[in-house]
Amino acid sequence: MTDQTKAIPEHDLLTQQSFIRTLGAADWLFALLIAACALFAQMHINHHMDIYEVFILWSSALCAILLGWFFKPMRWFTPLTMALAYAAVSLYNGSIQNADGFLLKYFLSSQSAIMWQCAFIIFALFAYMIGAAFAVKKNTQSNTLLGMGTVFGWISAVAGFTGLLVRWHESYLLRPDAGHIPVSNLYEVFILFLVITALMYLYYERKFAVQKLGGFVYTFMAAVVAFVLWYSISREAHTIQPLIPALQSWWMKIHVPTNFIGYGAFCIAAMLGIAELWAIRSEESGKKSWLPPSQVIEEVMYKAIAVGFLFFTIATILGALWAADAWGRYWSWDPKETWAFIVWLNYAVWLHLRLVAGWRGRVLAWWAIIGLFVTAFAFIGVNMFLSGLHSYGTL
């Protein structure tokens, strides 16, 4: 046994060994498939990639493998979305003029896939809500409609992520010298937000068996869908535009997605906060609640905030590094930076109060709900009402 191995506590070493032992042939086959896809991508689009983007490609492949090992449904989600996106790329055959083909026009073009995403989010919302009502009536924990809500949620995530991948390719077809990852404007990041939020909720639903909470989360997602549709119709936001100079950086490829994992988690937590208040009210009145116990809801909310806080912290650090590269300084107390710090501090205090001070219940639920408004202002309100170095992301 080496000195490095001796330094690892025995229980941690056993945990690591047991995790590796749980990996079966399907897990290693999945890892091989993702690695092969990354190698294929590098070989075919190497002329569009610098050393930083190659690093991002292989880091993304590693993250996809780990996600597939950690959350088993990702083993089919990731290959399926890549296969659908590659099918769309093949149908385009190097020309945007081929977009009128049947499969592209109605299913696989970025806009078609995103519209299917929006539709299935609405379908999932109704399935979850009606399914929860029937579960209450028949006093059951699950039923076919709740199961359909889960299926519709997965379909929406597949459609949305496929749409983003295809939109990336379409940007190069429209502007070969100005193609870019589709996280550059409000329309694109909201689609990314819907995908991330759906995947995170589906993970917690599977882990904690809380299908009845789907109506709360998808109500918020449906509101985002309404905004996306309005934004597309009134501002033609779905059209692909060239990157403005401020966003022509490889930092954007990692900063923005990381940020939206945090945003998605915080929004899930806020919806769960509403559910917890509802459950607490039922428990205090002595009525039988149709929701899971408030302690279970709070545990899911805590997990969501912990994950969101981790990724938001990483995103803030990446943003500081991007600022140093672009403006020559890591932090300037620009309004966007200031409000990002307020968001970070808000959830840092929430976690401190729960983990150290031992707070539970109604106060933390309200705190999570109010945190959504703080986060929303930091994301949208700052760009609308305050000026600064980040004033390029307005409505």
UniProtKB/TrEMBL annotation:
The chain crosses the membrane at residues 25-45, 51-71, 76-94, 114-136, 145-166, 186-204, 216-233, 260-279, 300-324, 339-357, 364-386. InterPro entries: Cyt_c_assembly, Cyt_c_biogenesis_CcsA, Cyt_c_biogenesis_CcsA/CcmC. The keyword Membrane applies. Keywords: Cytochrome c-type biogenesis, Membrane, Transmembrane, Transmembrane helix. GO terms for biological process: cytochrome complex assembly. Its main location: membrane. It is a multi-pass membrane protein. GO terms for molecular function: heme binding. It is found in: Membrane. GO terms for cellular component: plasma membrane. Residues 183-390 form the Cytochrome c assembly protein domain. PANTHER family: CYTOCHROME B_B6 PROTEIN-RELATED (PTHR30071:SF1), HEME EXPORTER PROTEIN C (PTHR30071). This is C-type cytochrome biogenesis protein CcsB. It comes from Neisseria animalis.
